[in-house]
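=== RUN LOG ===
request id: a7f3
mode: sequence -> structure
chains: 1
length: 241
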Amino acid sequence: MLRKPCLYFTAVLYILLFTHCGIPSFPYLYPPEVLTAAGYIEFQHDDDNDPNVFEGYEIYYRIYEPGISETQILADLSGYFNGISAFRDVSDDGTIANFNKKYRRVLLYNEDKSVNFNELEGGMPHMPVSSVDCGIDFSVQFLADNDGFLQINFIEGYLGSNDVLYGFRNIGVSDITSSPFFRIAEYTTTDFDVNSAEISDFSGGLEIAFFAVPYGMDDITQIFANNTSEDMRFLGTITAN
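=== RESULT ===
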């Protein structure tokens, strides 16, 4: 009677070993934790990430009409980000593949807005995290400042030199063209992020949804949120009006 459990265990072990044979694997990137906050959105970095693999975050956005539900935002996310090519399309600013995508990459600048991290050599991730900061569970806040800009603050132990960034929309078609997120009077139907989202009326304001995508390199292989929407994070929305 005692032999049956042993045989069952052996069979299960055999199945696990051989059904996974040949499937490519890569190091796991731990997604950030979305924190509850009032008046802004915030996420906390997971310090369990391997500093030899994890390199930082890609930050995406998508424009929605007012009243959009979190359920719909998450459904849209899982419907689009279903493989590495979808992430590459969005992260390759200004490429043909990016033209008709409803998701776009936030344009990130340093505090005095003189350096565009999207245009630096290498280009990814545009929110880099050093190997030292990778081991710290720092937090990142997104908020609308008084001038209509997206201000991004690194807090809670972050040691990097760029502890304040500014984010802009990319309204360009074939090149990078920046515009503030929260100046609704500056939105037009010809802005490419508005046009591709199929929005024609923003008289009642708009909801800007933001997403964090952990990014890493395994030797020469890119990893975006483990190449699945399940490991990127919807951070929340901020209203433009």
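=== NOTES ===
The chain has one domain: 27-240.
Helices lie at 3-19, 70-80, 84-91, 131-134, 192-196.
=== END ===
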